[in-house]
Amino acid sequence: MSVLEKLRKRSGLLVAIVGLALLAFVLTGLFERGSSVFGSSGNAVGEIGGKTIDHRVFNAKVQEAIENEKRNQQKTTLEQTAIDDVIQRVWNQTINEEVMNKEYEKLGISVSDDELVDLMIDHPHEALIRNLSDQQTGKVAPTFADDVTGLPSPAKIRAFTQAMTDEQEAQWAQLETYIRKVRTIEKYNNTIKKGLYVTTSVAKRNFIAQNQNSNVKYIAKNFRTVPDSTIKVTDADLQTYYNAHQNEFKQEASRKIEYVAFDILPSQEDIDEIKKQIQTIADEWKTKKPEEDSAFVISESDSRAFDMGFHTPGTLSPQIDTIMFKAEVGTIIGPYDENGVLKVSKLTAIKMSADSARVRHILIAYKDSGASPEIKRSKEEAKKMADSLLVLLKNGTAQFPDLVEKYSDDGGKKMPPNKKPGEDYKGKGGDYGWLNSSSSFVEPFKNAGLDGKKGDIVVVESSFGYHIIEVLDSKGAQKKVQVADIDKKMEPSNKTMQSVFVKASEFSGKNTTNELFQKAVTENKLNKRIADNIKENDRTIPGIESPRPLIKWAFDSKKGAVSEPMELGGKFIVASLVEVKEKGIAPLEQVKETVTASVVKEKKAEQFVNEFSTAMTGGLTIEALGSKLNLPVENAQT
């Protein structure tokens, strides 16, 4: 029987269903664009401790983690680098789980379903409490909070689980899994802590070592005093040392490549064509009506964005900042070049706005807004109610704090459990104190405060519902401007890209071995770059954007191979695989330099020991021994 089923058997309560920002705990993995980073086309992505990891199970974890990440970031898609990070975390977590699960099983550590119910309902775990709390205020959401203490209410949490949507149920199950893992780790760590103690004899030795000082005289001979060239080392010496110290030469699989980059840059012809295009756009923009600005900018701009924000002096591009604050609405500037991007800018609005304002508000939420799942009123009913309260306030027939207490759906109005009656707190009476343009409030809320005058009372709508906002005070009123930009990146045309590709392909096709590659680099005076110690699961190579295809090629190819051109981050890369290190014990030839240095040091040490032993015959004092060996006597305190 699942934990959820047990919960439902314990209670028949039903409550409204609410969307929760449940903890998107991180899983981990190795899938990349549907295939294993190992390049395998089979049913496994890898092996951990002799256990094969099935790609279907693993891919499901990856997809779940990606969806969680998108919810956390409030995005519909993730960039490839973000996906790569998620995949790597899933794989790392999979390794951890496979290793630690065996330890938990050996020690008999587990979390029963009844214990999980206790952690999720009766005595909520701190990780659960964090996810049931408002991220800004830190207060437990009203849906789950006790009306008196503000702490998590087992009754409300239990009731919530009875009315979850399928999506919420899936998220709750993920949270159960996470809490079970966290609790298991806590038990394991507690077990380890209880097993760690210091015996009386060890404590006594430590005390003596820390509190008893000794003065020591010694002589020492540095290895550098004997030239390495005077020490004879044979192949047999190297082999003997290598055989006895093979554990020191364990290595992970890695690759070393040398590569040249053919930059894909716009030609002068490309730049001229882009300038012509954006000039045409600028001319057309002058014919557009103000209400058409937003659609036109989104349609014609590479960034596909219309900036709704207002700017203060010094916050615009230096090329237009001074002009825009002296211009009239409708002024168009450009095209102009800003860091390789051609721009045309239009002054779309001017207003006087405060730097900061103090406001209070009454929130009238409606069903499916972001305030509370308990709200049943429609959007129309909420608007009508907000307008009615606004009339009461403007007529002076009602007091703002009274209406906050009676009608506001903002959970922040409730007194925190650590406050006493009469004490101030953020949200009391709807008052959140001073705000500015960088405050974390939603834009309509901020704008109402910063754009209004002291004493203004207005109704504005946000994603939480309708706010009745009163401006209590404001400071630093100044002119602000709204500027829309149309941007065009100066990018290479298909013709230019093809030309660079042909050049890179010609280089790759003529130089198919490392010897030819190196010779061509020298003859053509190309800038060769080196990437060493590349691991199979690496996601980055300095200087190369999104290098996974190149890394995969390096691990799929033989030493001395030369790659075909790869388009990576605005460059065609041609690489030569110059060194291959496989997982295991490095061969002697690969570590010969290190082994030689160690053997030389051992032979010197043997020579020094013989010198010291011969000189010490006769029971000499340390001073006499130093004089005989021509070495200084050193002093040390321990």
Total strand segments? 19
Strand order of the largest sheet: 15-7-17-16
The rounded Rg comes to 36 Å
Task: Report strand %.
Answer: 15-25%
What's the number of structural domains? 5
Biggest β-sheet, characterized? 4 strands, antiparallel
Number of H/I helices: 20
Oligomer: single chain
- Shape summary: extended
Low-pLDDT regions = 1-41
- The residue fraction in helices comes out at 40-55%
Q: How far do the termini sit from each other?
A: 64 Å
Instruction: Let me know the average pLDDT.
Output: 86
Which structural class matches the secondary elements?
Answer: alpha+beta
Structure in words:
- There is one protein chain.
- This protein has about 650 residues and is an alpha+beta fold.
- It contains 20 helices and 19 strands.
- The chain has helices at about 5-10, 55-75, 80-105, 115-120, 125-130, 155-160, 165-195, 200-210, 235-245, 270-285, 295-300, 320-325, 380-395, 400-405, 445-450, 495-510, 515-525, 550-555, 590-615, 620-630; strands at about 30, 35, 45-50, 50-55, 215-220, 250, 255-265, 330-340, 340-355, 355-365, 430-435, 455-460, 465-475, 480-490, 530-535, 565, 570-580, 585, 635.
- It has a 4-stranded antiparallel β-sheet with strand order 15-7-17-16. The chain has a 4-stranded antiparallel β-sheet with strand order 11-10-13-12. Strands 8-9-14 form a 3-stranded antiparallel β-sheet, covered by helices on one side.
- α2 crosses α3 and α9 packs across α19.
- The longest helix is centred in the first third of the chain and has 30 residues, at about 165-195.
- The protein is extended, with a radius of gyration of 36 Å.
- The two termini are about 65 Å apart.
- The model is unreliable at about 1-40 (pLDDT under 50).
